[in-house]
Amino acid sequence: MKSGSDLMSLVGSSRYFLGSEKSNLMEMVSDFDLVLTLVLVDSIKKSQAVKAKRSSTSNSKPPQFSLSTITGYPAPGYPPSNNPSGCATTAGTGFPYAAPPPRPAYYNPRYPYYPRATLFRRLLAILIAFFIICGTIVFIIWLVLRPRFPDFRVDSLSLSNFNLSSSPSSLISAKWDVRFTVRNPNHKLSIFYDHINAYVFYKSESLSDTTLPPFVQGTRNQTTLRASFATASSYVDDWAVEGINGERKSHGTVNFNVRLLSRVRFKASWWRARHRILSVYCGDLTVGISSNGAGGTLVGGARECRVGI
């Protein structure tokens, strides 16, 4: 019986021991949870402090290089920075890049495309090409046809019914008969004369005018043209009357000028030019005045005239 009671007491003591050990184990587990919680809280605080330090460092001025970097010893690394260009960095040096990064795209902007400027250039090029083509065609026609002005010559001039009066006003009465020889020197062009107007002058003073009939000149043709001018008691400036009287008394001659203006057109068998104004000037036609002073004739023979357009 004694052994049974001992056995029961041993079992009870072992139960007590296990219960006490279990309570100790629970206390140790709770202590471990507390320590783990404290460690996590401490690590969170440290990470927040590091982040705050990095943000303050990025907003401040760039770090100064240490003496070890200048003397060639390895540098303690460069703080992280944004590298949008993607250039490779060199570790262990005092510079963030192996080479300077390229300039951003806005340093070399692409200029906008202007369609109006291109259209203007095209129109200008078309106009230039058009004028070049027209000039080439005109030059070729000129080489083929070789147009030349007609030749005008005064063969004779006669003065009649010549009278001057200076009082009470300056008046002139006279009649001029002029004979021209007109020659067309062109081998391939005919000349059409329309609306021929003729004028007689003393220096710049117009004395009389007339109209001549139109005519056509064929190639290598020569035509005689006559013009008759008449005036009766026409008013002229005083200086003109004084000049005519002075020349007649001192030299016995008076110089007159004749001008022709005609609307002409050159024409070939396959080509026709537009109308132009032909100007003919026959100057210094010296007329010897007769002894009675009422008439005179051309002195010095035929005179060539200047022709132009």
UniProtKB/TrEMBL annotation:
Compartments, as annotated in UniProt: Membrane
Extent of the signal sequence: none
InterPro entries hit by this protein: LEA_2, NDR1-like
Domain Late embryogenesis abundant protein LEA-2 subgroup intervals: 180-275
Pfam families: LEA_2 (PF03168)
Any single GO CC term annotated in Swiss-Prot or TrEMBL for this entry: plasma membrane
Keywords: Membrane, Transmembrane, Transmembrane helix
Keyword Ribosomal protein part of the UniProt annotation: no
Transmembrane intervals: 123-145
Gene Ontology biological process terms from the UniProt entry: defense response to other organism
Membrane topology label: Single-pass membrane protein
Principal subcellular localisation of the protein: membrane
PANTHER family: LATE EMBRYOGENESIS ABUNDANT (LEA) HYDROXYPROLINE-RICH GLYCOPROTEIN FAMILY (PTHR31234)
Protein name as catalogued: Late embryogenesis abundant protein LEA-2 subgroup domain-containing protein
